[in-house]
Design goal:
The chain has a seven-stranded parallel beta sheet, sandwiched between helices. Strands 5-4-3-6 form a four-stranded parallel beta sheet, with helices on both faces. Strands 1-2-16 form a three-stranded antiparallel beta sheet, with no helix packed on it. The protein has 14 helices and 16 strands. It starts with a helix and ends in a 7-residue tail after the last strand. By secondary structure, the chain is of the alpha/beta class. Strand 14 and strand 15 form a beta hairpin.
Length: 419
């Protein structure tokens, strides 16, 4: 792989993309969606080989699930691309404008970031999500997927570049590092002459590596230790299906629920009911001492005492932490100590407590009476997402189209000189 050459090609393509119309980018996304549909059989064949190899190499069930494509997931990828194509175009949006006393006309206008470097693991759907969002917002991207998705990504990128060519846009707007050598990750992080932003999607190790080794700004996130607090005023019957959804709807992703905090005044009633319900769908539990006292030997086959690190674990599986707290303040203290700032929520009928919780919990998404599983670009109406940022930068939470733009000042005068 010649990363320097890829960087130059991406920068050249970015200049061309900056001059494209919204209609041209929409046409490209529609062409890509159609090409992925036409290539479904080939993509699924390549993905099946990746899945077999992944299992043989000992990938966890969570990683295999992230790797897997099927007709429904291909249909979801295509639908997301078409949803992104239909979204309002942020490029060229006037954010502010004014006429100064000296007559200068000043506008602050959204423009593409330029060239993105996106590094990710085990999720071939990310290839299409990132490509779609990057193209719609006028950006180019160099992709580096995990070695476990090599065949799947090759098939997807081939379809994407074919769609770009059919629409008359530069194929090099989407490039892919087609080599599993991990040295290329470091190489991409050094391309500061060509790449404008690095976005890693993966585990804590990948994020740490990027932060320590990149010459390029890095946006990190996507690691979720997520909580729901059951307040004393909560509708307990209505809370059960919300918690079940947050835990089991797709347990291997970053917005799945990891810990339930229960107010002590409802814990005796609620915790046994919760354990009984979720044990029926194969969830197991890690309980604090008060939880274990409440259960008093019941459900022993699915419960055990929480260990020192259990409340700091992103489970990515059907494991759920349980802790009894004495009220909202202790719940917030626990979340502050253990959350990764991704998605946390409260189940309550008390509007004052709901407002306090949303004010003091410093996460990218803070919920009242809803599942944490909604922290997702398509669910938030963004069409898709390139990542979920847990940083306090310009992008926080699901990163959609606007989060992939920056701005510049456009200033017009009448041969105006500064006095």
């Amino acid at each position: 792989m010649n990363l320097e050459k890829m960087g130059k090609q991406a920068k050249q393509a970015a200049r061309a993309m900056a001059q494209t119309s919204s209609a041209a980018r929409i046409e490209a996304l529609q062409a890509i969606a159609g090409e992925i549909e036409r290539s479904q059989e080939a993509i699924l064949q390549e993905n099946a080989v990746d899945v077999v190899d992944g299992k043989a190499k000992g990938l966890s069930a969570a990683m295999v699930d992230r790797l897997l494509l099927n007709p429904a997931r291909i249909a979801g990828i295509v639908a997301d691309l078409r949803s992104v194509a239909a979204l309002p175009d942020p490029v060229g949006e006037v954010m502010e404008q004014s006429v100064l006393p000296n007559g200068l006309r000043v506008r602050k206008v959204r423009v593409p970031l330029g060239v993105l470097g996106v590094i990710y693991e085990a999720r071939p759907n990310v290839t299409a999500d990132v490509a779609g969002l990057a193209l719609k917002s006028g950006n180019c991207v160099i992709l580096r997927g995990g070695s476990e998705t090599m065949r799947s990504n090759r098939a997807l990128v081939t379809a994407i570049r074919t769609g770009l060519e059919a629409a008359g846009l530069p194929q090099d707007a989407i490039q892919w590092i087609d080599d599993p050598d991990r040295a290329h990750v470091l190489g991409l992080l050094q391309l500061d002459s060509y790449v404008d932003l690095i976005i890693p999607r993966g585990g804590a190790g990948l994020h740490d590596f990027c932060r320590k080794n990149s010459r390029i700004p890095v946006i990190t996130g996507g690691i979720g230790i997520c909580h729901l607090f059951v307040d004393e005023s909560a509708n307990l019957a209505a809370s059960l299906p919300v918690i079940e959804n947050a835990k089991i709807q797709r347990p291997t992703v970053c917005n799945a629920l990891d810990t339930v905090l229960v107010h002590e005044k409802v814990a005796e009633r609620f915790i046994p009911a919760l354990v009984e319900r979720l044990a029926g769908v194969e969830v197991t539990f890690r309980g604090d001492p008060e939880t274990m006292r409440i259960l008093a030997g019941r459900f022993t086959e699915v419960t055990q005492a929480a260990g020192p690190q259990d409340f700091d674990t992103e489970w990515l599986s059907l494991v759920l932490g349980l802790r009894v707290v004495n009220g909202l303040d202790e719940a917030v203290e626990h979340i502050t100590a253990h959350s990764t700032g991704h998605s946390d929520g409260i189940l309550t009928e008390d509007k004052v407590n709901a407002a306090r919780f949303q004010a003091v919990v410093d996460s990218a998404a803070v919920y009242v009476n809803a599942s944490t599983r909604f922290t997702d670009g398509s669910q938030f109406g963004l069409g898709a997402e390139v990542a979920i940022s847990t940083q306090r930068v310009h992008a926080r939470g699901p990163m959609g189209l606007r989060e992939l733009t920056t701005y510049k000042w456009l200033v017009e005068g009448d041969y105006t000189a500064r006095s």
